[in-house]
Amino acid sequence: MMLGMSIPHDPPRERFEGYYATLKAPWDIGRPQRPFVEAGDAIHGRVLDSGCGTGDLALWLASRGCAVTGVDFLEKPLAVARKKAQDRGLDANFLQMDALATGELPERFDAVTDCGLFHTFDDTSRAAYVAALAKLLEPGARVFVLCFSTDEPGAHGPRRVSEQELRAAFAKGWEIEKIEPSRFEVVPGIPGADFSLGGAKAWFATIRRA
User: Of 26, 48, 20, whose CA–CA distance to 158 is shortest?
Assistant: First the structure.
């Protein structure tokens, strides 16, 4: 998962590489975020975990019988994810690729999980990402998105997303089933990653492909 933490004058790729190099990525909490666990029964079949990071959500889904493909644009967290899969005896496929290119994958999916990726995109990339998701999903398939909310105070960290922005991004060809206030847990004690007590305020959205 990728929170898109903001560090001035630090290009995004170098920023994420820096976090993983120090083993102090704020979003890498060692387990799936709670909203996905609570929604687990609705996530099944062939699942794409978009922005999978070190694979905790992807491997949790695999342990529940899902056929999981995780994608991330950095190789280092993917190597960690593959090692976790091997150590746990779980079968999951991890690919290094840009999330905006996932529409080129030949496989189609029953669900996409997005834990902290959607809010990293600017407006243009956001539209391209949603278009890629549309190519991946059969009608009736769902996207599950956890992203920072505009209710989270301050301007540090990732871009905040309003409920209206979420609805607008998925306005054509999608049905918004649910958008609920949620929380995004981060590793405590990392400079620049201090958010609301109990976890950064977030949205958890369930969106169905029409």
Answer: 26
Threshold 0.85, pTM exceeds: yes
In 3D space, the residue among 19, 57, 21, 50 whose CA is nearest the CA of residue 157 turns out to be 19
Backbone angles phi, psi at 32, to 5 degrees: -65, 150
Q: Which residues pair with 68 in a beta bridge?
A: 47
Domain range enclosing 103: 12-209
Measure Cα distances from 185 to 19, 199, 209 in Å.
Answer: 17, 4, 28
Number of domains in the chain: 1
Task: Compute the distance between CA of residue 19 and CA of residue 5 in angstroms, rounded to an integer.
Answer: 10
Read off the tokens for 199. Answer: 């976890």
193 close to 42: Cβ distance less than 8 angstroms? no
Contact 144, 116 (CB under 8 A): no
- Judge whether 75 lies within some domain: yes
Residue 26 token pair: 């704020």
Residue range 75-133, pLDDT digits in tens: 999 999 999 999 999 999 999 999 999 999 999 999 999 999 999 999 999 999 999 99
Answer whether residue 34 is part of any domain: yes
User: How many Å apart are CA 10 and CA 17, to the nearest integer?
Assistant: 11
